[in-house]
Design a protein that fits this description.
mainly alpha; transmembrane helix
Length: 156
Amino acid sequence: MIYIFLVLLLVIFYQDFKERQVFLLALLLSLSLGGYLHFKNSLLELFMHNILTNFLLLSILILLIYLYSKFKLNKSFFESFGLGDLLFFIALGVSFPTISFLVIFSLSLIFTFILFTVLESKMAYKTVPLAGFQALFLFLILFINLIFDIVNIYML
């Protein structure tokens, strides 16, 4: 299952980077598969607690993005933040325990900022492929962890 998840992450990266859009099926499959992998490695009560906590944190973040878009940028929410980005945020929230989610989510945003800053002048689109870069980061983390068995991400 982890191999399918890794392939889906690469698909999301490629589509978002090249076209700034991702097939809904790829996002829904990554959400489902990520949730399954998390569930398989957790107790039911802990899984549910993690999901609720992650969704609460994501809700606060989405509210802040909405308010910033509306009042500071004077744009609608989806003009400044893509539906694919939102769905990928949810997929991350379902896929990991809260501590792992916070670490992966935060580091993926830093990775995205650095990568976009380096590649911005070479990119056809001037928008950030957020879901794609986060998917690439997650792919790298999971792939390296799969090869070297560094840490059990689901036990943090």
